[in-house]
Amino acid sequence: QVQVVESGGGLVQTGGSLRLSCSASRSLFGIREMNWYRQAPGKQRELVAAIRIDGATNYADSVKGRFTISRVTANNTVYLQMNSLKPEDTAVYYCNAGAPWDSWGQGTQVTVTS
Fold this sequence. Notes:
Strands 2, 4, 5, 6, 9, 10 and 11 form a 7-stranded mixed β-sheet that branches. The protein has strands at 4-7, 10-13, 18-24, 33-39, 46-52, 57-59, 67-72, 77-82, 91-97, 103-104, 108-113. Helices cover 0% and strands 52% of the residues. A hairpin with a 6-residue loop joins strand 4 and strand 5. The chain is mostly beta strands.
């Protein structure tokens, strides 16, 4: 089993930046991919960014060029650097430890004001 805990959300103006952190309770090398999802009010949860065990990354089209997912394996932490934030980025952001665990954090609120 693995637990993940997010931190770093908050309130920011349009064009601002935030960095989210996701701390895992076990080595990232035991998790095939680490993912950031988000869910805005009234919308389905969507995949924002992912980083695979080999370090490969992928992003939703809506955040490409603005968000960067990274990891520090020494402390089992994955980050989501979010730049040039827009009001439509407002959502609860969730960290997910993928296969074989599929564990979710409690979420962290990101609010971008216009």
